[in-house]
Amino acid sequence: MMKVVSLALSKKKGTRKTQVNEVAVIENHGIEGDAHAGPWHRQVSFLAAESIERAKQSGLKVGFGDFAENIATVGIDWPQVPVGTRLRIGSEVEMEITQIGKECPHRCAIYYQAGDCIMPREGIFAKVLKGGKVRVDDAIEVVKE
User: Fold this and answer.
1) pLDDT of residue 109
2) Of 32, 98, 123, 129, which has the fewest beta carbons less than 10 angstroms from its beta carbon?
3) pLDDT value of residue 112
């Protein structure tokens, strides 16, 4: 089963995010109160909990939110999800995958704090098609590939 295991946000880009139990997601904007929200293609970021666990097993002292991901999930191999895929999260929110990985022109605070950053390799980005609430444990469903 694909589901949300962590939600996190931050007021500033390039920093670790703080975990919360619920977020308000705004259509064509992103997560309310998050620094990455706005009118662009990377409104929300995803990372697999399995990726975070592998980073821990390699010796990094990291947890949810430490890679600046908004939504950590289980049961999804994000790098294999094609750009353009549409997802429903919980009963209301719909998003479209817009980017797999990212280029980082320079190392951010996360890299120096954690010792590595997996977002450039394994992070996924989406834009919000339909807003609403997202909660930890919400199911994730592919509605269109």
Assistant:
1) 63
2) 32
3) 72
How big is the chain by its Cα radius of gyration, in Å?
14
> Which residues have CB under 8 Å from 106's CB, separation 6+?
none
* Helix or strand run (H / E) with residue 44: strand 44-48
Residue type, 88: R
Total residues belonging to the chain: 145
Q: How do residues 62-111 score in pLDDT, each as one tens digit?
A: 899 988 899 999 999 998 999 999 999 999 999 999 999 877 666 766 66
**CB-count burial class (<10 Å; 0-12, 13-18, 19+) for 124:** buried
Q: Which is the CATH superfamily of the domain at 3-144?
A: PK beta-barrel domain-like (2.40.33.20)
Planar angle of CA 10, 15, 21, nearest 5 degrees: 35
